[in-house]
Amino acid sequence: MITALRHFLVDSWLGRVIAFVVFVSFVVLGGTFFGMGGGMAGLNGDTVVQIGTRKITPVEFQKAIQRHVAFAMQQNGGSADFLKTPQGRQEVGHAALRNLILVHEGELAGERNGLNPSDETIREVVFSMPDFKDPSGKFDPRKMDNVLKASNLSHQDMILETRRMLYSAATMFAFGQTVQPPAQEVDLMVNYIGHGQVVDMVRLPFSLSEVSTQPTDEQLKRYYQNHLWQFRQPEYRHARIVVMTAGSVAKTIQISDEDLRASYNLKMQDPAEAARYNSPELRSIEVLAVADEATAKKLASAWQGGKTWAVLQKQYPKAIPATLNDARLTDLPDAALGKVAFATPAGKVSAPAQTAAGWSVVHVLSIKPATHVSFESLKDSIREDLANERAASVLKDRQRAFEEAVAGSTTLDKVPADIGAFPLEGSLDAHGNLPGGEPAPLPGDAALRQALIEQVFSQKKDEPPHVVTEPDGSAFAVLVDDITPSKQNSYETAQQAVKDAWTADAQKHATEQRATALFQQAKKEGLRSALAGQKEDAMLQKDEHFSRLQLRHDVPELILKAALELKPGQTAMLQAGDGYWLVNVTGSYEESPTLMQAIRQRMVAQMTAAYRNDLQEALSMSYTRAAPPRHFNAALFNDINDRVLSMISGRLGQQ
């Protein structure tokens, strides 16, 4: 991360200024937020934290949060999933504040060491920024104004950030630039990552074994007594629930036709968005290219006469064949070839066409017409998208109405649906299952469903409902109106379930014995030999490759760990899921030299960045000891962080 930031710092002067505040997002200031002595004394609501005589204001903190979110989204490929959890939101705020603290600490360190960039120095730096120069290389003030306006920066912001950048470049970023990781450490890491294991393995499911004998009634009764907890009817609670989520609120939001049309026009004006819905004409073609026109004419005549592409390749072995499936006009490498390919009807063979490489004949196999999605066809999906985008802020606005409706309805039957709240009721157990065993159709994501279940089983029967609000803004109220206590099923009632459980245990035990026997044999002579001639041989997976570069997800994590960590020749027997696994490492392999070189280069870059980061962190900690942050206003921090991130989440349409 530090390496990427450093490149940005070096490659773009404007980037140095605009993104400066987020350069040190991942430098950890241990104790920064827990060692701020002095409480709130002497501060008011316009200071988040104080460093020396400097104060971090709410406006400054708000801008830092916005910049940090923008940078984090860029690093995550445009995703803002980190904003969906309370922990993620807190980390965003803490990282943004750490950025600001380091910025101020760097300035103070520079001042303490006699660094004071003059106005002339700052002016020279600004005038030298390539982003502000015209095509002739001269500074263009109008271009600077346009760039600053697009970046939401004023001239004063520009001067301030340039000054801070100069302080930081002198007091922090230059520190540790010459450090390099030890070659032995690089070799160790490259060898660890660049070598994989070759594995034979077999999965033996519990159901593999058959139980030939039937249990006696006495065996079943003994099994029942020893496993009473398996045959107990759980407690069921009947509850009335009213839920309001961003999704339910979105269904009540009205979107005007003007807004729908404006959104459609924006999509069609954006090339990336338009490409999602519209596509040009596509053609699948066969091509034969030859060196001269005479040969091309003979070839075209034969092709038009009914000879196939395969036959013609044999007849004209020097012809260069090519095929393109669903190709755009722009996909064809030669303009003349594209012109004839898109002028020939489907199923027809073209006349010879002269191209940059010689002469070509084209057979058009199929044509897919161009498509253009109309406003009417997208209208409903646009309405849904816009409603979802606005739902987060509307959800917050309707919280008060929801609370008042719940307070005025002890039975939850008077909560109006037009605010986005919807009712449901039914019986469920503490695992969220219906009496029949299937999951209850609770709304929302996993966190909301779990919160609903916990509320149902923590709330007393007939206790007046109250609103519970989740971190994402979703809210619900619960009324528990009936409880069916848990009870032990009698042996007679549970006899079939007891028999099924006994049989499953017997199958598992038989499979375990079989797997153990094969394991003991595999330890002596390898898994292949142990399974040779056995019924399990058909299930053996041979020469499977496991690498730390590309972790496999088709096997349980326990099996993956064994495949990577066992030594060649070793065999392991493991239980994972509903079966036993036998894993035998037969050898190892090394990735290709090209890939190994790429791994080495990446490791050197990552380890170098890590060493530099450690050095810079140590330096930054020394700055905080010289001027420790103090008077941290936690309430103001949380208020600003919540408001800014809620606004951003609403704009992104997160629910």
Automatic annotation (TrEMBL):
Pfam families: Rotamase_2, SurA_N_3. It is a single-pass type II membrane protein. Residues 255-380 form the PpiC domain. InterPro entries: PPIase_dom_sf (IPR046357), PPIase_PpiC (IPR000297), PpiD_chaperone (IPR052029), Trigger_fact/SurA_dom_sf (IPR027304). GO terms for molecular function: isomerase activity. It is found in: Cell inner membrane. The chain crosses the membrane at residues 13-34. Keywords: Cell inner membrane, Cell membrane, Chaperone, Isomerase, Membrane, Transmembrane, Transmembrane helix. Belongs to the PpiD chaperone family. This is Parvulin-like PPIase.
